[in-house]
Amino acid sequence: MTPIEKRIQQLNDRQQEACKYISTPLLVIAGAGSGKTSVITTKIAYLIDTCGIKAHNIVAVTFTNKAAREMKERVGQLIQGKASRGLTVSTFHNLGLNIIRKECKTLGYKSGFSIFDQQDALSLIKEIMIRQYDDDGGMADQVQNQISNWKNEMLMPEDLMNVSGSPEEVAAAVVYERYNRYLKAYNAVDFDDLILLPTLLFQNHPEVLEKWQRKVHYMLVDEYQDTNTSQYLLVKQLVGMRAKFTVVGDDDQSIYAWRGARPENLTQLKVDFPSLKVVKLEQNYRSTSRILKAANILIANNPHEFDKKLWSDYGMGEEIRVIACKSEDAEAERVASDIIEQRLRRGNHYSDYAILYRGNHQSRLIEMKLQSYQIPYNLSGGTSFFSRTEVKDIMAYLKLIVNPDDDNAFLRIINIPRREIGPTTLEKLSALANQRDVSLFTACDDIGLDQVLSEKATARIRQFHNWMQRVTQNCYQGNAIDAVTEMIRDIDYEAWLHQTSNSPAQAEKRMNNIWFLVESLQRSIHRAQEDGDEGDIEDAIAKLVLRDMMERQEEEEETDKVQLMTLHASKGLEYPNVYIMGMEEELLPHRNSIDDDNIEEERRLMYVGITRAKRVLTLTYAAKRKQYGEIFNTTPSRFLEELPQEDLTWQGVKSKEDPEKLKAHGQATLSSLKSLLGD
Ligand code: ATP
Ligand code: MG
């Protein structure tokens, strides 16, 4: 028996059916931990091994880079050697990036285009608002959000011009139009463009679409409930009339509506593909029955499109602990000491523990406690590696190498390290660039430069330009990594770090980050080469920039560490022991959602959190919490009341109103469970 046959045999009947079904489009809709992702992984191997589809004709899309890496690894275990070469397992944004890179000429972009991150995009929007409208740019955040929504909905500026909206919307639409024009001028795309541009391209160039459809013989999508309009369309376009695809999802885990995700895309499939087959999975292989029951009862409070039952035969398991703490400090203290105690008692690893919370800001206290107990931990989605100043500096150099028209990158590094090029010089250079309609870097080489700048300034600018051109040439003609390393030494960036850091130790740490960045670049080039791509520097840098935006922690090695992350980031993952902190009204559910009457999405978030736990689930809250420098009394989260009270065991101080109220709710939820389980 081949490894893949063996693997399929281990699956239950429904899972097997989902793996082997290829005649029409397939939707697997099922609750958490029922093996949706496992089905995708096994199916990829099955398609290659048994159906004879070539790996390079299969495209699998997942939600995070981490998930993509894991999936590739698992397929690699089932299918050895060359057979899995060329397989595409990526995020939507990575897929879009690949398409844009291959088709950039048709799209009117030069190769080596830049990808603007949130911050770059925000500065540009601000600048437009200030320059064009004499606005203070204070609303730039909202405008950025609005533009992002429009892009996800596939609405272009010209579509908006004739639609009457509020004055704010009309103003935002005007900024949108300018913003897109600037991006084009900078030879840059933003995060949302990575999906939008390929879908528009496919719409407008059927011949290009046909080419891609010929490549994609089978497509698989995980976490389908979180696709937005443009992602939905991209899938639809790529699979075309052939419609060979499998998507898996869980409407109860839709937690990205705020970013334009449309769980309705699940029902839309039936409309767009009448031959759609639907498979439901019901057995959960992750959690104890008690944890599942809690999750089922909680989510039963939301209205349901799809009827789902979820059960597990892992036994009832331990009660769910609810720990009430006096303060947020006590809460963090309690979780940290509890991990030490539990780990000793259970004899397991730190990596068996995950701490989840609603917002990134909640990590600070618990981090401090973990540090003081010397508990190793890994923080996902915290301060980004890529948002560190030194990394941003060198990234800007790299961006300028692949896209000399990236004015943002140019401005960032023109004086880092100091080159005595002052603001007046830059203003004049900028005016010249505007006049000639070229980028700042190109303007550095303009013959008229010495007419607007002093002799000294001209010399400095020219020197920089020539040097940068040499570096670029070395990158493209020789070994790119050597060229980048030489560039970093050339500018003596290390000395610069010593000048700008608080201590030699800090400077050293920052320099290590730079070498880590160079290593990442090298790895990225190697990876591409292994997959049979050219692995050029443009591609490597584009991938780094994208990874930066998508997943902030990325390269952290998976050693024995407690995992800290937001509930959003925990999607798809599982841990034997899970803590959910800050179970308080206004935190979970979040205040904004209470105000917007959007409790259902918060409940789904809680559902995602609960269902990450395999064996032990602990919920904590603080009776007092600091906000805006003041200490407030808190109210325990309504979700605590919605849980089956008979399965909870309380520790610590309870808030006054709790016992009776909770008991009553317990009875109510018990009856809802009974009806759910049908007895
Ligand atoms: P989520 O909704 O959280 O993304 P999921 O539906 O994708 O969950 P998986 O992550 O694929 O579920 O599977 C959950 C766990 O169950 C994994 O540890 C997986 O290895 C295990 N599993 C899946 N199917 C089986 C099976 N047939 N037998 C034993 N274990 C299984
Ligand atoms: Mg999954």
Please give the largest β-sheet. 8 strands, mixed
The fraction of residues assigned to DSSP E strands is 5-15%
- Outline type: globular
List of distinct ligands in this structure: adenosine-5'-triphosphate, magnesium ion
Total strands? 16
Mean pLDDT: 88
**Radius of gyration from the alpha-carbon trace, in angstroms:** 27 Å
Q: Which blocks of ≥5 consecutive residues have pLDDT under 50? A: 668-679
Secondary structure: helix percent: 40-55%
> Structural class, from secondary structure content?
alpha/beta
Distance between the amino and carboxyl termini: 42 Å
Per DSSP, the total helix count is: 30
Quaternary assembly: single chain
Pfam families: UvrD-helicase, UvrD_C
Protein name: ATP-dependent DNA helicase Rep
Biased composition (Polar residues): 668-679
EC number: 5.6.2.4
Folded structure, characterized:
This protein is of the alpha/beta class. Helix content is 53%, strand content 13%. Strands 9, 10, 11, 12, 13, 14, 15 and 16 form an 8-stranded mixed β-sheet that branches. Strands 3-2-6-7-1-8 form a 6-stranded parallel β-sheet, sandwiched between helices. The chain starts with a helix and ends with a helix. α5 crosses α26 (537-550), α6 crosses α9 (167-185) and α14 packs antiparallel against α28. The chain is built from 30 helices and 16 strands. α4 links the parallel β2 (58-62) and β3 (88-91). Bound molecules: adenosine-5'-triphosphate (ATP) and magnesium ion. Adenosine-5'-triphosphate is lined by residues 10-12, 15, 30, 32-38, 250, 253, 285-286, 572, 574, 611.
